[in-house]
Amino acid sequence: MQEFVEIGEELVFLAMTIASIVAFAVFLERLLYFRKTMGKINDEFLTQVRGSLHEKPEITWEAPLTHTSSYWRFVHFALRQIGLGRKGLDESLEGQILSEKLELEKRLPILNTLGNNAPFIGLLGTVLGVIKAFYGLGTLGASGADVVMRSISTALLATAAGLGVAIPVVMANNYFSRKAKVILQNLEILKKEFLAYQMNKTKV
């Protein structure tokens, strides 16, 4: 039994190491993705689009060729739909928003899963360590008190590692979820303004 407990401890720490690597990789990937969608350039682009929709009968601006943000994709899609004169613009734009939502929330479930389960994995490691410590106490008796205390100390490291992984992962997940929410709200605003633009253009 003792051998299985020791193997379990090693697997727990291995799982925590893998979880931290995966979480860091997802964090970097999402950080780079959101930097393409948010920032000064994207804010200026969004302001320019809204200004054109409000003040000009015809839209005369163009996005940079390297602009691949959610805003650019949505605006490009809306203009194409309007240019083709297709009906059901409201449903089409709503579908595009849902498509962007999938991209914005991509891989965030990984962070959510790791953030929720890392403390439990660490707790499992602590439980296994305590089992090992008490087994040693029963085998060695009072003479093995030092060994038992060291085993419990090592066991508590598993819980600390679990919290060490979970806390920054939850913070990162909340950060990206908030950014995604802001972008989607801006897309909803753009959707309403494009619908109003099409209506005014039809009247003219």
TrEMBL record:
Annotated TM spans: 12-33, 114-135, 155-176
Keyword annotations from UniProtKB, A to Z: Cell membrane, Membrane, Protein transport, Transmembrane, Transmembrane helix, Transport
Subcellular location: Cell membrane; Membrane
One biological process term in Gene Ontology: protein import
UniProt keyword Manganese, yes or no: no
Domain of life: Bacteria
Main location per the UniProt record: membrane
Record bears the keyword Membrane: yes
Membrane topology: Multi-pass membrane protein
Family listed: Belongs to the exbB/tolQ family.
This protein's name: MotA/TolQ/ExbB proton channel family protein
Organism: Leptospira ognonensis
